[in-house]
Amino acid sequence: MLATSSFSSVDAGLLAGAVVLILLSAVFALSETAITRTTKVKAISMVEEGRRGSHSLMRLVEHAERNIPVILFALQICTLVAATIVGVVANEVVGPLGVVVATAFEIVVIFVFAELAPKIWAVQHTDRAALLVAPFLLAVVQFPPLRWATQALIWVANLVLPGKGLKEGPYVTEEELLAMADTAADEAVIEREERKLIHSIIDFGDTVAREVMVPRPDMVTVSAGATLGAAADIASAAGFSRVPVYGNGIDDIVGVVYVKDMMRAEREGRAQEPVTGFMRQAQFVPESKRIAEVMREMQAGKQHLAIVIDEYGGTAGLITLEDVLEELVGEISDEYDVERPRVEPREDGQLEVDGGMSIDEVNELTGYDLPQGDWDTVGGLLYHLLGHVPDEGEVANYDGHRLVAEKVNGRRITRVLIGASAPPGPAEAGSTPGDRAAQEP
């Protein structure tokens, strides 16, 4: 027969304390959900509207990385202490069977009423919940012993956990930001163009100069030995306002000449003078430099053009302020931009693309999943797959995609045709080793 004892006033006091702790657990559970779902922008808007509790809420979300751990710690204290009290009282009153009773109580009451229900309500009424608990919560997170204990436990966790641990607090990844922008656009909270701009801004921080530069073969340059008139003719024919000047080859850029300077000098009758007398100092940037930094340097130096150099100090290409801005706002066309469209759909479902288009741009525009690697462009991928300079019409296959060197200018692939690979058939048995090699990445 199980030993039991009578229910004493001490047990009643303990259970009353457990009830209070369970209610506090419900408040902290609701608070955690409400605060984590409230953005700083939303809190600012509530302050501007003058809503009650908004100032306390603003102080909480301003430093959420410091406040949320304190809330979680308080939640765990209340939950664990309440469960322990219930277990102790049940064991004294019912005996060993009290463990089963306490476990059932904790599952039903604590989980449902102190965890699940408050969080669901906070999700459904986020603004109301956040404003309701903010003043009380601010007092809790500012309570020194609780904050000190939380910081001590985070320090212990940082010793155990590898990597960043908990030093930097919770953060939002780029993928989460992009997903939020996509969801907001789908729900008509923001416009499609705003979504596109958010994507461009996030991608902007990861883009390097090599990815947006005008490559070396496409550069329009003038020799340092040219006359001012000849240099002006070259710049005018190309439609450029600035042209690099080279000395002993294109790897020796000695300056940049401006069309406005040449026009002024020509009006003064100085067309036969050397162009070097009118050039300005060139700005140089490494090809691995992020374009956000390049833009800041251009702004600081009041430059609109910079020479991109490779790791050996040679000229890799050039980058203009327009190239940088196009990464944010899309293509900027003027009266001189009469180029062929970079992407042209064919009637058979294939796409003809510029060989100089980046892999990221093609994947974004087409929905394809072309691979990343040591190459930046579609032409570079085709070179990698084939392993040699292709003839026009030469084909390479990769992961269900068929890439055709549609147009080759010298050693440069200028147009690539992309479509779905034909299903494997008997004809593959007679393919040449070069054909089979082109199918491997």
Written account of the structure:
With 441 residues, this protein is α+β, with helices and mostly antiparallel strands. The protein has 4 domains: 9-160, no CATH class; 174-204; 212-329, CBS-domain; 343-437, Uridine Diphospho-n-acetylenolpyruvylglucosamine Reductase, domain 3 (2-Layer Sandwich). It has 17 helices and 12 strands. The strands form 3 sheets. It has a 5-stranded antiparallel sheet with strand order 8-9-12-11-10, covered by helices on one side. It has a 4-stranded mixed sheet with strand order 1-7-6-5. The protein has a 3-stranded mixed sheet with strand order 2-3-4. β3 and β4 form a beta hairpin.
Quick synopsis:
With 441 residues, the protein is of the alpha+beta class.
What are its keywords?
five-stranded antiparallel β-sheet, disordered C terminus, alpha+beta, elongated, 441 residues, single chain
- What is the radius of gyration computed over CA atoms, rounded to a whole number of angstroms? 34 Å
Cα(first) to Cα(last) distance is 75 Å
**pLDDT < 50 runs, ≥5 residues:** 166-170, 425-441
Please give the number of β-strands. Answer: 12
Across the major sheet, the strand order is: 8-9-12-11-10
Order of helices and strands: HHHHHHHHHHEEHEEHEHEEHEEHHEEEH
Class per helix and strand makeup: alpha+beta
Number of helices: 17
Assign an overall shape. elongated
Fraction of residues in β-strands:
5-15%
Mean pLDDT: 79
Assembly type of the shown chains? single chain
Please give the domain count.
4
Largest sheet: 5 strands, antiparallel
Tell me the helix content.
40-55%
